[in-house]
């Protein structure tokens, strides 16, 4: 049969053509993935086009400082966040806080929103691109695209993301006392997270306000803090509250060794406080 | 020893009379499926709140079942590649059962996944909304494409069955499709190599999760999948042969496949040795060392890794499969194959859970380190898993009984008709 004739030479003409074809396909594929339509840049572009809406350009980079030395652990930030973003269930808090102790025995109150990593592990793994790093640095969510696979929860090293295990119909105990909901409650089966109150930032910018300075354009947790332990603003603007504060204080970020490049910075606790 | 005399041809009368044991077995499997359907109903009406999962441990039993079903379905691509691509024809008697078991494995995995995601109504989103940087996106595509390949590989077997005997053109179409087997084997191998490995990469690429973050993950997953898939294929064959008192494959082939599984296992164990030595013994990566220490202090996963995965699921079966006097004993051979299959499942559970129950410590204080997560599957979760297992076992049972899965069976059935 034909097998015999092929065996007489090491590579038949057909084999050579096959190999050439396969190599060509491999080159084209590599090209597409590295620089072509499937490259990181191109894909991010696709995401932007489909998600766009009120998205701004790279003119702003939203950062936050949490001064652990100032924080008194009143938990106002956690409660107002739950009211404004309509998170009725305490186990689904976007802002997490708990009493902590430093290695040399200083008590302090540790709190964290989403850290809005520039190299966010959660956005990388999403199989449908339902979460992405916006041009202004905010890690956003598209609740209508999320399939609820929870890979982002698995990937996030900071335990930031929350899944809607059930349809949440309960009355939000924080509403009215701590604020009014500004966004609709999320449906069952999708992942949600802190957004730096993106609704305030986008609306504020369109009204000509400055996030970090004007309260209506600033995350609710920053506004409510009675001791100004949370500072917010545009890191690209040297005069913004966040830039000024970071210039005046030594700050660190959580687990820099992960290479996630968070946009939330912390000031170390230095004095003993009653928490 | 396997029966040496050739069994009498099956007559039409015999095949229609079902034994009590068989009926009881099928009824038991149907009960399992009913239990599963009850669980599914709970999940779809109340949401995933009925599971034992939480935001710390968002993946559990179903993901383990999903990873195991796909892993144990790897016999399909292994035998297709051996028979249709490398043209080692003496393995051909096992090609059909391998494809069949693989097909059931992949469909089981898809049921488990559809139950596990929060929005099953959006299962098609990965096909429309692309994120090529997500391993899960790649896996979704590969699994869907490969399931199609498996269905096309499986179709000729189905078309060959007695049901389609009255329409000869169906059988003819099946034979035409079978001519495409080598092409299917190539596509299937490419797709399998990709997603069997990327299932490991699902964990291996997570740079924020020190316990998982290593490049060995994809390799370990595909090697264990090949060992497990080959073992399950052979185990199903031997079991069918015992239960039906028919010789389905020659002893030489049986021992050769056993050796193949043994050597794959040996390769796996060797890589595992270096995986452990390089990351935990000869080096000290702070994140990994810290996570492993906490794992050892607070969970049984270190023990289950060494004793169940390595000794019981690795070394013992490897010795049985590679030492001829031991593997010639059918009971020991089945024990070894069963141990490998069980070890693949336990490995997928250990990999998933060990990374989740010891979350990274991100607090600048010292109390945050005490935070540990826990997970126990709920009754509903277990019910759904039992249902999926029931489906898989029922499909295999009915398949080996009524479909021409084993070539000899087919020829005898034909002479009987």
Could you tell me the number of beta strands of chain B? Answer: 0
CATH architecture classification name of chain B: Up-down Bundle
Strand line-up of the largest beta sheet of chain A: 8-1-9
Integer tally of domains of chain B: 1
Q: What does the overall shape of chain B look like?
A: globular
Strands of chain A, total number: 9
Which CATH architecture of the largest domain in chain A is right?
A: 2-Layer Sandwich
The gyration radius over C-alpha positions of chain A equals: 24 Å
Helicity of chain A, in percent?
25-40%
Rounded to the nearest angstrom, the distance between the terminal CA atoms of chain B is 30 Å
What is the CATH H-level superfamily of chain B?
Answer: Formate dehydrogenase/DMSO reductase domain
Low-confidence stretches of chain B: 1-14, 409-417
Order of helices and strands of chain A: HHHEHEEHEEHEEHHEHE
> Class of chain B, according to the CATH hierarchy?
Mainly Alpha
The arrangement of helices and strands of chain B along the chain is HHHHHHHHHHHHHHHHH
Descriptive account of the structure:
- The complex is a heterodimer of chains A (275) and B (417).
- Chain A is built from 9 helices and 9 strands.
- With 275 residues, chain A is an alpha+beta fold.
- Residues 1-7 and 45-50 of chain A have low confidence and may be disordered.
- Helix content of chain A is 30%, strand content 13%.
- Chain B has a single domain (54-206, 216-360, 373-404), classed as Formate dehydrogenase/DMSO reductase domain (Formate dehydrogenase/DMSO reductase fold).
- Chain B contains 17 helices and no strands.
- Chain B is globular.
- In chain B, 47% of the residues are buried.
- At the A-B interface, helix 3, strand 2, strand 3, helix 5 and helix 6 of A face helix 7 of B.
């Amino acid at each position: 049969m034909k097998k015999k004739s092929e065996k007489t030479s090491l590579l038949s003409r057909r084999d050579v053509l096959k190999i050439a074809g396969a190599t060509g396909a491999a080159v084209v594929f590599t090209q597409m993935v590295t620089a072509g339509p499937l490259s990181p840049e191109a894909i991010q572009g696709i995401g932007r086009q489909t998600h766009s809406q009120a998205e701004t350009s790279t003119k702003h980079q939203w950062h936050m400082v949490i001064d652990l030395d100032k924080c008194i652990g009143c938990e106002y930030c956690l409660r107002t966040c739950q009211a404004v973003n309509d998170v009725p269930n305490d186990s689904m808090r976007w802002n997490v806080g708990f009493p902590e102790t430093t290695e040399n025995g200083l008590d302090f109150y540790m709190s964290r929103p989403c850290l809005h990593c520039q190299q966010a592990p959660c956005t990388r793994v999403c199989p449908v691109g339902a979460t992405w790093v916006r041009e202004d640095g905010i890690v956003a969510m598209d609740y209508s695209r999320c399939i609820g696979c929870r890979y982002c929860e698995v990937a996030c090293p900071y335990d930031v993301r929350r899944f809607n295990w059930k349809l949440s119909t309960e009355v939000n105990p924080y509403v009215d006392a701590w604020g009014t909901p500004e966004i609709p409650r999320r449906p069952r089966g999708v992942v949600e997270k802190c957004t730096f109150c993106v609704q305030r930032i986008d609306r504020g910018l369109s009204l000509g306000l400055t996030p970090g300075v004007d309260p209506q354009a600033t995350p609710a947790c920053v506004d409510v803090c009675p001791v100004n332990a949370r500072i917010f603003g545009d890191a690209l603007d040297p005069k913004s509250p966040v830039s000024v504060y970071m210039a005046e204080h030594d700050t660190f970020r959580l687990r820099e060794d992960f290479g996630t490049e968070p946009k939330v910075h912390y000031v170390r606790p230095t004095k003993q406080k009653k928490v | 020893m396997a029966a040496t005399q050739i069994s009498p041809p099956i007559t039409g009368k015999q095949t229609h009379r079902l034994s009590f044991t068989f009926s009881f077995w099928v009824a038991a499997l149907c009960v399992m499926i009913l239990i599963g359907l009850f669980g599914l109903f709970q999940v779809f009406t109340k949401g995933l709140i009925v599971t034992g999962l939480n935001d710390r441990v968002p993946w559990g039993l179903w993901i383990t079942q999903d990873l195991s079903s796909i892993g144990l379905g790897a016999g399909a691509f292994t035998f297709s590649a051996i028979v249709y691509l490398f043209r080692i024809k003496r393995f051909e008697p096992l090609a059909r059962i391998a494809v069949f078991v693989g097909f059931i494995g992949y469909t089981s995995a898809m049921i488990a996944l559809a139950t596990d995601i929060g929005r099953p109504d959006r299962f098609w989103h990965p096909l429309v909304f692309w994120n090529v940087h997500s391993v899960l996106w790649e896996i979704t595509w590969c699994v869907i494409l490969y399931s199609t390949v498996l269905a096309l590989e499986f179709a000729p077997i189905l078309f060959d069955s007695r049901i389609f005997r009255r329409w000869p053109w169906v059988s003819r179409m099946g034979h035409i499709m079978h001519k495409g087997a080598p092409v299917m084997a190539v596509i299937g191998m490419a797709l399998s190599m990709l997603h069997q490995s990327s299932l490991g990469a699902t964990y291996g690429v997570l740079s924020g999760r020190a316990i998982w973050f290593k490049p060995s993950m994809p390799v370990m997953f595909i090697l264990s999948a090949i060992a497990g898939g080959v073992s399950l294929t052979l185990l199903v064959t031997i079991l069918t042969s015992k239960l039906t008192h028919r010789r389905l494959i020659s002893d030489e082939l049986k021992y050769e496949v056993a050796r193949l599984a043994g050597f794959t296992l040996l390769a796996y164990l060797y890589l595992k040795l270096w995986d452990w030595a390089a990351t935990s013994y000869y080096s000290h990566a702070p994140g990994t060392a810290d996570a492993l220490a906490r794992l050892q202090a607070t969970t049984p996963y270190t023990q289950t890794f060494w004793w169940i995965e390595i000794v019981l699921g690795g070394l013992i079966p490897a010795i049985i499969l590679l030492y001829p006097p031991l593997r010639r004993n059918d009971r020991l051979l089945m024990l070894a194959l069963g141990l490998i299959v069980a070890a693949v499942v336990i490995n997928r559970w250990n990999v998933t859970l060990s990374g989740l129950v010891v979350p990274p410590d991100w607090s600048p204080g010292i109390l945050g380190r005490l935070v540990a997560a826990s997970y126990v599957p709920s009754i509903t979760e277990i019910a759904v898993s039992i249902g999926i297992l029931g489906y898989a076992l029922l499909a295999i049972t009915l398949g080996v009984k009524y479909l021409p899965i084993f070539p000899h069976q087919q020829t005898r059935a034909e002479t009987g008709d």
